[in-house]
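Lab meeting, action items carried over

1. Structure of the two-component assembly. Owner: GW. Status: complete.
Input record:
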Amino acid sequence: MRDIKSFVDAGVIGHFPGGIHPPERKSPANTVALRRPPLPSELILPLRQHIGPSGQCTVEVGDKVLKGQQLTEAQLSQGLPLHAPTSGTVSAIEERPMAHASGLPELAIVIQPDGEDRWITRQPLPNYRDCDRATLIETIQKAGIAGLGGAGFPTAQKLASQKPIQYLIINGVECEPYICADDRLMREHAIDIVAGIEILQFISNAGQVLLAIEDNKPEAIAAMREAIDGSDSIKLRVIPTKYPSGGEKQLIELLTGQQVPQGQLPLDIGLLMQNTGTAYAVKRAVIDGEPLLERVVTLTGDLMSQPGNVWALLGTPIAHLLAEGGFNADGDARVIMGGPMMGFTLPLTDVPVIKTTNCILTPSLQELPPAADEMACIRCGACADVCPATLQPQQLQWLAKAKDYDALESNDLFDCIECGACAYVCPSEIPLVHYYRKAKAEIRNIAREKAKAELARQRFERRQERLEREKQERLERHRKAAEARKKMQQEKAATETSDAASAANKPAQDKSSAVAAAIARAKAKKAAQQAANNTSDEENS
Amino acid sequence: MSIVVGLIAIGVLALIFGVILGFAAVKFKVESDPIVEQIDEILPQTQCGQCGYPGCRPYAEAIANGDEINKCPPGGEATIKQLADLMGVEAKPLDSAHGEEDVKKVAIIREDECIGCTKCIQACPVDAILGAAKQMHTVIEHECTGCDLCVEPCPVDCIDMVPVKAKPETWQWDLTSIKQNVAQAKNISSADTIPIKVVE
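Predicted assembly:
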């Protein structure tokens, strides 16, 4: 295998195993200019919108907020803050259904826009080259930017790595059918994207930038070529259209001929990948001082009368975007978030747009027939041919059904990127990815349970130790007290016997007095007895 | 003569190996029966005592000494299967005399009703309840094993065992649960929804 540098310098495009060529269907949505829908009546902002923990809420119900005002405080390293996408009032902080296949609710801040769209004071850094790296990374973190390509990994954390970066890869591939949000963004905001790329390059200190675009987006390629004209460190790479070329590991293999080793990150081999949308958001954050408040969302599918790409404020209800796209609702309609390969059917439509929402797809039944009944696997091997991670999908499926988790892990289930190529080609209509997702969730759950059990065991043992220690201490105290009592008794007895002994030693001298004393004692005893008898008599009478 | 040499050589070897073995026995001493550790590893560590032993480790010791493997309701079928594999015995259904397998639960104290008697604190096998005499108590949720032992001692019955709530990140891709989740979500959501088909 050639090293990265000679491969990239040769300017060739490599290839990755597998992959499919589903119908692209990027038009008509990619032919319409970006537009901005009217303000929705409420914005629902889930506290957690990216990979990592949610922040701590810093506003209260009834608070007036300005556009760009911070709503949550990120606490841990992977945390990101959230900002008000427009000015308005916090009308509720409550659990709302989320844009997730499960339809489960999560805590969200609900904002009632006031329509004025008043900005908070922004702090732009147009001369960012005078700032140091840490300041810029902090700016990007404070702007709440997560990777807008799909996974939603905090961008600042990727940039904060101390490992040397050889190449910065900008992912404008957008390989999934229908989705054309990055395409439109590149056509209309190429200059801004390049500015963002330059900021990313400055922060990461990468020697060279590789900008990858699939060859089915000639307009975007032309726009970007014009924008980077004159820059010798940004190289445009046009790659052939194949799904899933936009996957991080697949694109790295295409551009550098290298495979990212299992269990490692691109950073470990000196590569950093960012999405074009993220580059644009970075430019807005640094040069304009605007946090991440909106993103481009593709509205497409046969059931939309006005497909296209829109600037959607984070928190915009999907139902609002469906209205914007002219969605003709009927009972059988499906609303898919994401593309046809990796997306999921939304169980309900009043869920919000979050940082990772790139597409709303409403296909007709003819366009995207619903999944037919699953048939038995015939071991044809078509899935293994198309798997971009060179896994054995049919084998994984058997193992997942058998719940053989050890074997699943040794068959590299966690290398699966859930691209859906295997399920796409499966002649038996087996929903393969569903089985993998389920198995992954179960394996993670077992690991969580195990960690919890271990914690409980430790706490139980500590408690047992503590109880035992307390018991020992109590026994020790009792023993000491008993000893002390014994000692006192012994001492008392000793003094008494010594008295008696001394008395016995001098019988001649004290005999009379001793006798007198004994008589006195006897008398006293008798008197006491009599007194007692008297009183008892009195009581009896 | 050669016999003597042989005897001496064997004797010296025996001495050397004896010393090595003696040293190894001290150096690599196994603290307790490793099978007990392995069984304890499999048990769910709820420390609930439903098996009749005061905690998971005592039950692990009992299993090692030949007790039945089907007395652990929190572990359920999965634990019995693992124990059967480990012990080389036949897996059998859960002994219902010790309870039924149930969903994961967590204890919640209704705090305004708590009188601060500390009885639940003393009952908790994993010290997951926080509080002091005549002060309100509360359950540290992520330490709670759902063992149920704090419910009984509470003189004012202010402890509830509630099922652990599903979260999107811990959801098990059970498609049949979507409808139920949506129904729940709709109850808390004020906005109107466009009726769409839930694909199962």
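2. GW to write a short summary for the group page. Key points so far: The radius of gyration of chain A is 38 Å. Chain A has a mean pLDDT of 89.
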